[in-house]
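Can anyone check this?
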Amino acid sequence: QVQLVESGGGLVQAGGSLRLSCAASGRTLSNYAVGWFRQAPGKEREFVAAISRTGSTTYYTDSVKGRFTISTDNAQNTVYLQMNSLKPEDTAVYYCGAKYGIYSRFGSQWNYWGQGTQVTVSS
């Protein structure tokens, strides 16, 4: 019903920046909370950032506060993750997700996922 497609990942040097995009189709993102998770090999999927349905409130995990910014463009049904001051520990596959109702830090509670985009940060 909802399809999410990420783009914008790649290889970047430590201290650099990337902007991830997630385009939605099928249904408008205005009906959902949207956010980003990431997963490194051997680790569980980790909450990164989310934005409320109204777009007025954002949430971030402590490790990315001050460096990452989540935003939406409802006219294009797109969610973005601007990542600055990247560190090697940010290396992971990044997934965008959508969830009915209030956001959750637990990936098992999210309803839809994109295919993921690889972010690799070299030192």
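Reply from J.R.: I decoded it. Residues 58 and 103 are 10 Å apart (CA to CA).
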